[in-house]
Each structure stands twice: as structure tokens, then as C-alpha cells.
Fold this sequence. Notes:
The complex is a heterotetramer, with two copies of chain A (about 400 residues) and two copies of chain C (about 240 residues).
Chain A: H1 23-26, H2 30-33, E1 69-71, E2 90-92, E3 105-110, E4 116-119, H3 120-125, E5 129-136, H4 153-157, E6 160-169, H5 170-176, E7 186-191, E8 198-202, H6 203-208, E9 211-216, E10 219-220, E11 230-232, E12 245-251, H7 258-261, E13 266-267, E14 273-275, E15 283-288, E16 293-295, E17 299-308, E18 314-320, E19 328-329, E20 331-332, E21 342-350, E22 355-363, H8 372-379, E23 392-395, E24 401-405
Parallel strand pairs in A: 3-12
Antiparallel strand pairs in A: 1-2, 3-4, 5-6, 6-9, 7-8, 7-12, 9-10, 9-11, 13-14, 15-17, 17-21, 18-19, 18-22, 20-21, 22-23, 23-24
Chain C: H1 2-8, E1 16-17, H2 20-26, E2 41-43, H3 44-54, H4 56-59, H5 78-83, H6 100-103, H7 107-117, H8 128-141, E3 150-152, H9 156-160, E4 169-171, E5 201-202, E6 224-226
Antiparallel strand pairs in C: 2-3
Helix pairs in contact in C: 3-8, 7-8
The structure holds heme C (2 copies), calcium ion (6 copies) and cobalt (II) ion (2 copies).
Amino acid sequence: xxxxxxxxxxxxxxxxxxxxxxxxxxxxxxxxxxxxxxxxxxxxxxxxxxxxxxxxxxxxxxxxxxxxxxxxxxxxxxxxxxxxxxxxxxxxxxxxxxxxxxxxxxxxxxxxxxxxxxxxxxxxxxxxxxxxxxxxxxxxxxxxxxxxxxxxxxxxxxxxxxxxxxxxxxxxxxxxxxxxxxxxxxxxxxxxxxxxxxxxxxxxxxxxxxxxxxxxxxxxxxxxxxxxxxxxxxxxxxxxxxxxxxxxxxxxxxxxxxxxxxxxxxxxxxxxxxxxxxxxxxxxxxxxxxxxxxxxxxxxxxxxxxxxxxxxxxxxxxxxxxxxxxxxxxxxxxxxxxxxxxxxxxxxxxxxxxxxxxxxxxxxxxxxxxxxxxxxxxxxxxxxxxxxxxxxxxxxxxxxxxxxxxx
Amino acid sequence: xxxxxxxxxxxxxxxxxxxxxxxxxxxxxxxxxxxxxxxxxxxxxxxxxxxxxxxxxxxxxxxxxxxxxxxxxxxxxxxxxxxxxxxxxxxxxxxxxxxxxxxxxxxxxxxxxxxxxxxxxxxxxxxxxxxxxxxxxxxxxxxxxxxxxxxxxxxxxxxxxxxxxxxxxxxxxxxxxxxxxxxxxxxxxxxxxxxxxxxxxxxxxxxxxxxxxxxxxxxxxxxxxxxxxxxxxxxxxxxxxxxxxxxxxxxxxxxxxxxxxxxxxxxxxxxxxxxxxxxxxxxxxxxxxxxxxxxxxxxxxxxxxxxxxxxxxxxxxxxxxxxxxxxxxxxxxxxxxxxxxxxxxxxxxxxxxxxxxxxxxxxxxxxxxxxxxxxxxxxxxxxxxxxxxxxxxxxxxxxxxxxxxxx
Amino acid sequence: xxxxxxxxxxxxxxxxxxxxxxxxxxxxxxxxxxxxxxxxxxxxxxxxxxxxxxxxxxxxxxxxxxxxxxxxxxxxxxxxxxxxxxxxxxxxxxxxxxxxxxxxxxxxxxxxxxxxxxxxxxxxxxxxxxxxxxxxxxxxxxxxxxxxxxxxxxxxxxxxxxxxxxxxxxxxxxxxxxxxxxxxxxxxxxxxxxxxxxxxxxxxxxxxxxxxxxxxxxxxxxxxxxxxxxxxxxx
Amino acid sequence: xxxxxxxxxxxxxxxxxxxxxxxxxxxxxxxxxxxxxxxxxxxxxxxxxxxxxxxxxxxxxxxxxxxxxxxxxxxxxxxxxxxxxxxxxxxxxxxxxxxxxxxxxxxxxxxxxxxxxxxxxxxxxxxxxxxxxxxxxxxxxxxxxxxxxxxxxxxxxxxxxxxxxxxxxxxxxxxxxxxxxxxxxxxxxxxxxxxxxxxxxxxxxxxxxxxxxxxxxxxxxxxxxxxxxxxxxxx
Lengths: 407, 407, 235, 235
Ligand code: HEC
Ligand code: HEC
Ligand SMILES: [Ca+2]
Ligand SMILES: [Ca+2]
Ligand SMILES: [Ca+2]
Ligand SMILES: [Ca+2]
Ligand SMILES: [Ca+2]
Ligand SMILES: [Ca+2]
Ligand SMILES: [Co+2]
Ligand SMILES: [Co+2]
């Protein structure tokens, strides 16, 4: 998996002093007695070497080739609402590229008065907006429609990230081109990579809050996330956020592209598929403590997690420590934004007994995140996409946390 | 300066098609005809190679040794409000370290009922908050109290960054230790590095919004920014945001530490120094276009910049293109947060004539960012710190932008 | 008017008109109504040659390979072709895979996708007749067209009428529009809520370290550590 | 009570009591009122030895070096010591540097800082008497104490009364408290505002590429490029 992992058992925890006191205090460390390293040694900075365990990882067996695959964000070790760009999840269908931005073009055509070509120079001159939004793969949590399959939150929920995006509103571009507002009901977005990913966006949404973005978290997009241009479709599954965006066509029908007609379709119990189910509905997950982690001790914990909704903002998150019988409302860390991750925190005192932790988010439309059995009652267990059920983590007596389903 | 710079003159701009059309469109690029790179090739992702020009840089001659120095954030190429952590400015007094977090301790003592020691394990268990705040070095823009000295916004304003910080509120820690609220008027914060930076924080502020933070932009702090623990003192100059935080002492007097008694003191025209001037007052700067940049063409531009205030949030930003005679109000990109950077944007059509661009921020207290002559009228030209004057950029007829003072 | 635009949207002139040749070069998508489909044709025989040379290494000679991707062909029947619904998708059926032909409702999707993205390692290198041909071959493997068939822009609409799952798609608007309502219902009960007592599913033992040792995927400090999953799970 | 705390602040017991030895090990700060100053003494003569061995390489034999940092000594006079204000900080004076002794009001600051941070490449290695001594030597270089002086915790308060800039500090509360008001005043004029016509200061020609070629410090695309500052500035 690349970078070397740092091994450290929980035995290494240095809690109490012995005798006179803690050697880490009484014996001055090298860094208190020496001269450190110069500024700009890293012109572009890196995380601490002690953080090497937190990295993007593949889920073995999930896909067969690494260029049509996924790497997952290590949510178990992250904080706040912003996802570090270096740990943003990846989903490629035909590999990623580092495209020369001076050679990249965006074409807008179809049901418009004037078809237009834009260079990056052109686009970056246009009136821009900056917005914080989550992006979630439609297949996030997919392996668990039926039974528990995955050990940690990195693999169960790690295809979601949240970043500040900067770009020009899609509506600005469409208006510049004289979009036909009567006949033009849909926009096709197409990428420049080998897969030339194509996705249909409905016009209402296109005119509302989509962004043709070049920047993510203050700098240009990362190559893995579509450098130099990506469509941001707030609230909609990641596959619609077309990377390496090169073309926008306005049309009067949906396109039924491969990833709208063979994948990203949801198999229902009756054998039909729901097509064009883009919305990422309200969802939440506790990230600390979560599957595969060990509580070090009884006593107080700050239980922390993330909540989001593709239909608006998070209104409330409740947390249960008894498998859903009783709930308390968590603190939300602001700013609580539209279609953005929201960090929640709640106090918990662990008495050393087995416990089952769950979080349940409610969004601004009043929708309550469902239990897995409630989802299954409508959609069965085979629909792959849009699995937004309440996640349960079981805490064993020895402090180990594991993935379970309870409802 | 480390990474190799990418050379590209503005001559390389590919604007128009010739004949049939643009070869970048008619000739399919390699990335449209091939298979790209696998997921998790970079377990921790990096910016595009095309972005190598944007890096932290030193200002030659500013300091004499690189471990007691500064590297500046390339604001001329950034977007939105979040600063990428890899480009966060650096200010070290005795070099930076990558400290083993399992050996790091925080001690709280002095006028408290119980002196306490915390491991990182302990701290990270405590109730945490996540907040987006700017940090600005008190000496940002210092070289320009008198005359123009620096070519670009990286060097004039590049000691400001904005990140999401996660940690435990300082008030939580102080309350746990039974802080003496009557006698305890100040808190000393001390770092674990060689300089063991010490700064006095007043109790009112300590109890209000300070954070003992371990995370920045979703991951642990970077080593250059104090891994594994840093004090966040919203609105106050960066030197008070003690890195490698190891000790908090509650006391009844200010400490007059070296960086409160020899530096970070403001020389006034009468020869006295103002001591303990921590607040970073309301300030703004246009980042695009800015010094050292070339406009490629006449016509429309989205003039973009940043505004912030150590006393609250940004209420309004006005922009002038005629050296301050006439002003228009810019759009603010939300969320507009307390003591955080706020991105502003405004439309401008350049007619090819010389122009002088300025921005002027107003904060929630009603304070209006001053002109440099208004600042000088009170403080003279020798006070080094807290230079928050309106910045002027001159656009020459050939499109080149340069740093000037006009008032 | 242009003048009014120049004032209210002064960025209106940024960019430039696309040339017809440029639009032609990039406007490659093919829609379900076959808008965008170039004129042309290709036989099953030609397709078989293309397939063996350029596709079979990944997808298997009969589109059945599971090596690089789920199989393209398989799981459909004559009855499905009649009905336009694939029986193997219905409850109770145990066909092990969901192949492409079982799912896809629109033949245009395949034409478009093969043309834009296949072969995977050399996308957009097929000639138009090769795309017709190889698609004809795939359709033939699924018994949708006969061995001597030549697929063309003229007859593709007829072929569409034989797609095994052509009636299998439902447009569920509430999950397309932001203003829609979710289909699953929960209530925000706070106290003594109805729950089943027992754990209904737990991580299978074999999955415990199938993703590596989780200890090495967690921070070395903090309120928790990664569990050493090389050791057996707790009771 | 503890019970109430345990309920309202259940995290109250996280962490542990610090031991006296631990506090002693880390509580090294020395305040202006000399709280924290350890007992001890050191002579100018001892200090000179320490200085020559461990400080002069960076700060110069007389604390005058500009090599790694602004000079520590210089710019103060007997009259300053009398008055407690440094003349060279006042308007009209042209002393080229602001040395440490010109600025610092509190002798505790120097004791504390030398003890915690110097020598720069080996901080916290000086013995207490060495800190007293080397500080005595610095003060002697500034004519604040005589050559035969021994600085100690007993007489340091007397020395404080001779610090050349001891009356030079002003506490300006509005820039310490978030609730304070700024001292510079501007108004948010929007139209025909009073301005001077001409540019009052421009980037000097020598500064144009003193930071390297700015072209290489800007993105290769976007609304602007970096100017090639190896070429002369525009007229
Ligand atoms: C080097 C391997 C490789 C070769 C050669 C190749 N393919 Fe593929 N094919 C793939 C992969 C991998 C995918 C899945 C891509 C993705 O995840 O989007 C795929 C997907 C497909 C699909 C869509 C299947 C689905 O259910 O999504 C079709 C149809 C297809 N290929 C046809 C072809 C044809 C026709 C050729 C030859 C002209 C070809 N392939 C050559 C690897 C290959
Ligand atoms: C290897 C170089 C080096 C050595 C040796 C060294 N210093 Fe320093 N000294 C510095 C630097 C660099 C600074 C500025 C540090 C900063 O920016 O915070 C400094 C700062 C100081 C200051 C504060 C000056 C001011 O105005 O901030 C004093 C006092 C001082 N040194 C005294 C000493 C003494 C006493 C010794 C020997 C015991 C010593 N130094 C040895 C490099 C050195
Ligand atoms: Ca797919
Ligand atoms: Ca300093
Ligand atoms: Ca143009
Ligand atoms: Ca088309
Ligand atoms: Ca404890
Ligand atoms: Ca003390
Ligand atoms: Co969907
Ligand atoms: Co100050």
C-alpha cells in the first residue's frame, strides 16, 4: 500500500507517572535541547511521519483492476469537516492523468445560441464562487446492503469527502452561451480521460448550484480529482462530478450513458432498476470510536462523527449507545452548510460493558436517516447504490469496536 | 527553493482557433486515447506537476538564518478561504521538529486547584470543537511601513493562512484544573521546541475562544505548524499560537517574554514601544490580479481577494480601480465566519489604460481598514507589526501589475 | 441586446465560438433516440475478428470473463427478449452475476460506450464499422441478433426492440430531483424506541484482517488505537 | 462537588496530577517580578568566558554582530541608564540598529530567554550560574554593570533600575483586547473620495527580481501570468 505503516500498540500509552514523574517530562527531549529544521525545507509541506498509518487504501477484492477502482479516505483518523486533499477518496474508471492545463479546453454546445470553447485562461477569468460541499460516491457503503462485510469506517464510508470548491457557476456558462431554456432540459457533462465519463444533469439543478470548478481547498484540483477542471454537482453522487471536464452539451433528453444505464442503477426487489437516482440522501456515521479501533480505558469519550445530506443541511444528529433504544442529541460543529459534511460530537462515559453505538441524522427537509431494515423493506438488498442506513458499532468488553447490524 | 519551477510565458496562451479549429480539440490528446494511472498510486496525494510554481518561499535578505525565519504562502495563486496545509506559511524561531506524539505531554499548573499532565491520548479524548480561523503573523506586511519594498502578494501578505482547527477548548482544560478565576488573570503558553516560545494570553480571551488544537484542515497539524499540539488564539498574531505546546501556567502578571519585550513590540513615533499589541486588525488584499502578474488582455476580469479581522467577521469589502477615488462593493463568498478569511470577488472590465486597484475591508465592529498614511499618522513608519493598510496594485498599459503606494 | 449584455454580464465575450470541425470532433455521444449515431454498419463476422483481437483478452472469448470486469454476456433468455424483462433479475433467481446484457435497456448505451471507452487501454481507436461490428458480435453472443447479422444505423432501432431488459428501467423522480422525498421512513424516536434485541449481523471472522492489520491503519495516539487484527476477535 | 462535576463534566478525571518534580522540571519561566528566578549568581568574568566559548561565534565578541541576528549590545548611553529611556529610539536619531539593550525594558526577559533558548543550537544547556554570568557580561557590555560585577538573584532588582529602556514601554490596551478600538481612522467613502493624485512609492528597480523571476512563481494558466522580471519594468 505504499508508505510504510507505523506500528504502535495501545500498550505504548504513557498515562501515569512513576515515582518522581514521567521520563517524558523529567528527561528533556532532543527537540527541546537542539536546533530544528529550516523554513521552506518542504516548499510544499507534508504530514508528520507519525501519521503514515492514515492513508488512502484499496479494499482488496472489491475491484479487479486498479485503474477502474476506488481508494478510500481514512475517516477513522480525520477531524472537522474539511477532508485533506491528499486523503480525498479516488474513483477512476480508466485511470487518472495529470493533464497539461494550457492544452485543456471546455466546449459548450447543443441547444445553445452560440457554441463556445473556453481555455483555462478564459474560465479562470470568469466570475467565480467558492463553496464547501461534500462529494460521496453513489456506491459508498454498498457492500453492506445485506450483511456486515467490512472492518472499518474507511471501507464502509470512506468514499465521502468535503472540500471548498472554487469555479464558475455552470449557470453563468450556460447563460453566456444563450442556453435554450425551453427545449434544453438536460446537460451532458463529459470528461477528457479515456473513459470520457458522461453524465446527464437536469437543467433545474444545472442552473441552481452546479460549479465548473478548478480549485479544491484553496489550490487547484488534484490530478486524481480531475485537474484542471471538474463539474461540482452538490448533493449528487460523485460519478456526476465529471473529472477532466471537457464538454457540456445541452439537450432535450437524458443520455443513458454507460454509467447511467449499466451502473449507478439501483436493482429493486421486483427485478426492475431505478435509473437516474442521483441524490445522496441524509446519512451519518460515527468515526471515533469506529470499527477496528480499541478503547484504551473505561471512562469519558468524545464520540465524534460526520453527517451530511444531498437535499440540504443537517438539522440534528442523535446518538445512541444502546443499539437504538435511547438517543441523545449531539453537538454540531459550525458552520452547518448546505450539502456539506457536518461534524458532530457527543459525550459518552464508557462503563466497560458491551455497548452499541449508532448515529442518526435529520436534514433540513425533516428526513430521518433510516435503519438498514427500513431501507431494505423498500429496496431489498441488491440495489448497490445509495445505502444511507444507520451504522452500528459494537464495543466489546475488551474495548474492541466492530462492525455490526442492529435495528 | 526546492521543487523545479514550471516555465511558461504568457505567449503560450492558446486562445483562438486557426482554420478548422484548435489542434488541442481536433487532435486527441494521449489522455483521451490511453489508460491512466491506478488508484492509491499516491496513498497521500500531491498537487499536479503543473502547479510547482506555487510554493512556500523565503524572502531573500529578510532573515539571516533559515531556522529563525519565514516562508510565505503564495496567495497570488490560491482560491477560496481555506489555505492548503502544504502551503501554510512558516515562522520558526529555532527550527521545526517532527515530534513523537506518544512522548508529548501538556502540563497545566500555576494558579489552579490541581496541576495536571495530559498525554495526547488524554487530550484527544476530551470534548472537541472544530473552527475555521485565520492566523496572521504580526509582522505580515512589515517591510512596507515606509516605502514599497516587495514585488508580489506572496511577500507582502503571505504570512496569513486560514484553516479548520480541531481541539479542546482552552477553557475546558482550565476548568478541569480548577483555574483560580479571581487571581488568575493571565495564562502563559510555552512550546516544547528549542525556542520554547512563551506568550502571555489574557484570561478573558483564554476562556472565550482559544483552542488547544491537534488538527488542522481535517488531519493532524503539520510538523511545521506545531505537530502534535498548538494553541489557537483567534484574532491574535501568529506568535501567540504557540507550537509544540507543552505547558500552560496560570498567573497574575504578564510575563514579558523575549517575544513580548524585545520583539512583537511596536515602536511609536515618540520612541516608546507599545507592548502586548496582539490583535490583527481588519485587513484585506486583492490577490488576483496582484504584484508581478500580467493581465493577458483587455476586457473582463474577476478581481478576487481576501479580507479578515481579528475583532470579528467581515461586514463588507469595497474595491476601487482608480486609486481610491471611487469604490464599489464586492461579493463576499460564504460562509463569512468570525476571525476567518473571507474571499471577495468583483467584476472589472479593463480598458487597457493604467489603473490602480485597492480593496478596503470593514469588519463587524464598523472599523474601516485604513490607508497607509492614516496608519502612519498615528504610528509612524517604524513600528514593524500590525501593518493592515490598504494595498495598492498598479496596472500598467502593458498589463503588468506592480506594487505601489497611493492614498 | 449585446450592449445591455456587455453591461450586465461584462464577461459575456470571454471564450470564443466553437468551429463546426471542433464540435464534430468532440460531439461523439449517442443517445437512446440514436441522436449522434454516425451512419455505418458492421457485421457479426467483422465484430468477432475485432473482439478476438482487441477485447477477448480482457472480457473472454464469449464475453464471459470475470477477470477484469463482470461478464458482458450471459443470463438472458429468448423469453427475456420477447418480454423485454430479464427473469434472472427477479427475486428467487440465483444466476450468479448481473451481466451487462442483463441490465442494459438501451442499445445506444453500448454503442456509445464501446466507441468512447473501449478497448480500455486504447479507447477511441475503433473505426465506426468496428464499433458496429463488435456490438453486433456482443448482441449475437446474447442471441439478440443472428450470426449473419449486420448492425447498422438503419436497423439499430429494430434491434432495440429485442433488448432483453428494455422494459426493466424505472425512472424514480424523487431520487433525481433535490426536492424529492425519500422512500425509506424512519422516525426520530428518542426514548425506549422499538428495536430488536440481538445483533443481526457481525463482521465474519475471515473479514477481520482481509484489509490488513487494522492496527497499522490507525493513529499511534488518540483516544483509541487500531485493534491488532492478526489476533483473534474478542468473545 | 466531585459527583456533580462527574455528571456535568464527565471528562473531569482525564489526565492526572502533575508531580512536584515534573512541575519543577518544566516551570522555568522568569517574570518581570522575578518570580521563577532560581537562586544563584554569576560574575562578568565567568560570563565573558561563557560568551567567548558559546555565544561570540554568532553574536560577536562584543554582542555587536549582525551575522545571525541584530546586535544585542550598542546604542545605549549613560544618560539613557539615568533616564530609563533610550534616546536613539526617539525621532531624529540615526543609530542604524535597534539592539536588544535599546529595546528591552525588563532584565528578567533576558535571563529567561538566555536560559530557555540560548545557545541557539544547544538551548537549555547553560548552568544557572552561567546564565547569571553571561547576562552580567552582556549588561557590562552595555555599561549597565561594572567589570567586576557579580549578578545574582539578590541584586537583580537593583540592576533592573538601571535598564536603559526601562521606562520605554507603553501598554496600549485597545490592541490587546478584542473589544478595543483601532487607533487609525478611515471612512468608507464611496464616490469622489479625497485622494492624492500621484503614486507616492513604487517598487524600486532593484527589488523587481530580488525575489527571483516572478514568472516562475505564478501558475502557467489563469487570467494572468507571472511577469518576466528578468526583463526591465514597463514605463
Ligand atoms: C485491457 C482490458 C480491456 C480490453 C482490451 C477491453 N475491455 Fe472492455 N472493459 C474493461 C474494463 C476494466 C471495463 C470496466 C470499466 C469501468 O469500470 O468503467 C470494461 C467495460 C466494458 C463494457 C461495459 C461493461 C459494463 O457492464 O459496464 C463493454 C461493453 C466493454 N468493455 C466492451 C469491450 C469491447 C467491445 C472491447 C474491445 C473492442 C473491450 N471491451 C476491450 C477492460 C477491457
Ligand atoms: C548558533 C548561533 C547562536 C549562538 C551560539 C548563540 N546565539 Fe543567541 N541568538 C541567535 C539567534 C539566531 C537569535 C534569534 C532567535 C529568534 O529569532 O528568536 C538569538 C537571540 C539571542 C538573544 C535575543 C536577542 C533579541 O533581540 O531577540 C539573546 C539575548 C541571545 N541570543 C544571547 C545569546 C547568548 C547569551 C548565547 C550564548 C550563551 C547565545 N546567544 C548563543 C543565535 C545564536
Ligand atoms: Ca462503473
Ligand atoms: Ca522574533
Ligand atoms: Ca477571448
Ligand atoms: Ca451530442
Ligand atoms: Ca486518565
Ligand atoms: Ca512559572
Ligand atoms: Co444512483
Ligand atoms: Co503586536
